[in-house]
Write a structure and sequence with these properties.
The chain contains 2 helices and 5 strands. The protein has about 110 residues and is α+β, with helices and mostly antiparallel strands. The protein has a single domain, classed as 2-Layer Sandwich (S16 Ribosomal Protein, Chain: A). It has a 5-stranded mixed sheet. A hairpin with a 2-residue loop joins β1 and β2. It starts with a strand and ends in an 8-residue tail after the last helix.
């Protein structure tokens, strides 16, 4: 059985939402899948859910990732790298703000 990680469409007409699923390659696009790995909303280009650990698990088992999901992985990796960079800069900014803040006089 060849497993693929691909999109399956859910949602209404003109308002698609895609699930990222692990599915047997012989099944229909919207057929029964093995596992739900995430959700993507193309209307506002938002990755709603992303189970990176489960995607890595299926890839290690030999699942083939489709081109559309590969593009989404690149976008997600850029977002994660950007978030890590922002988090590492934020604590340094707090330290600078604390040092420059005036000390309050104590009432004793």
């Amino acid at each position: 059985m060849a497993v693929k990680i691909r999109f399956t469409r859910v949602g209404k007409k003109h308002a698609p939402i895609y699930r990222i699923v692990a599915i047997d390659s012989r099944k229909k696009r919207d057929g029964e899948y093995l596992e739900n790995l995430g959700t993507y909303n193309p209307m506002n280009k938002e990755i709603v859910q992303w189970h990176a650990d489960r995607i890595a698990h299926w890839e290690s088992k030999g699942a083939i990732v489709t081109d559309a999901v590969k593009r989404l992985q690149k976008i997600k990796n850029k977002q994660v790298a950007k978030d890590v960079a922002v988090e590492s800069v934020a604590p340094q900014a707090e330290k600078v703000a604390k040092k420059s803040a005036p000390k309050k006089a104590s009432k004793e």
